[in-house]
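Customer ticket, subject: "Can you confirm the structure for Periplasmic protein?"

Message body: Hello, I'm evaluating your service for our small team and ran a test protein. I'd like someone to confirm that this is what the system normally returns, since I don't have a reference to compare against.
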Amino acid sequence: MKNNILAAAVLGLCLAVGLIVGGSYLKSAAIQWKSAERAVTVKGLAEREVRADLALWPLHFTVTGDELSTVQQQVNRQADIIRRFLTDAGFKPESITTTSPQVTDRYANSYGNQRPPTRYSAETTVLVRTPKIDRVKQAMPRVGELVSLGVVLSPNYEYRTEFLFTDLETIKPEMIAQATADARKAARQFAEDSGSKVGAIRSASQGYFSIQDLDSYTPDIKKVRVVTTIDYTLED
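Agent reply: Thanks for trying us out. I re-ran your input and got the following:
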């Protein structure tokens, strides 16, 4: 009988110790889990204005005629006039290219008395591809001179001049660092307001870089923008 009482007492003591230890472990785990959940997600922004480093200036024109040979001669003549105009404006011949004419038989889609006055039309583009941004801007207002030489350019928006920035890789690392610093600044402010400190980074993602015209009047100036999203832990 005494042995049974002693065994029960030992068993009870073991259970009590187990509950104390287990409870302490669970409490520690709960604190660690709660600490792991204390985090803040912030976004960091970096912006920079840069100058375009490549210009694409298309000069598009259309000629018409009833004979293909005549149309081809007109295309060659007007393309030569445009090339001379461009070289006189200071562009190197290797920066000027001419596309093959796109010829359309306008009679093919007409019926009866609805035929256009001439049968064939040919469209061609003389393209200037150059890093000389200022030279392009200076020459563009002079295209009216081509009219007096018998060339009428198409006012199609599809053939608008483009100014591009192609050197993104050079500024990428510094802009990412700026965006990251901006995100940490926001996290630090949040931590101070909540009585905490900023800890380690839990996760981070970099948004895509966007390149846009500064405004519609200065398309040769670009605004480069990137946003990063970072999760920081918060500590007491």
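A couple of notes from the result: The chain has a mean pLDDT of 85. The domain at 37-53+166-236 is CATH 3.30.110.170 (Translation Initiation Factor IF3). Feel free to reply with more questions.
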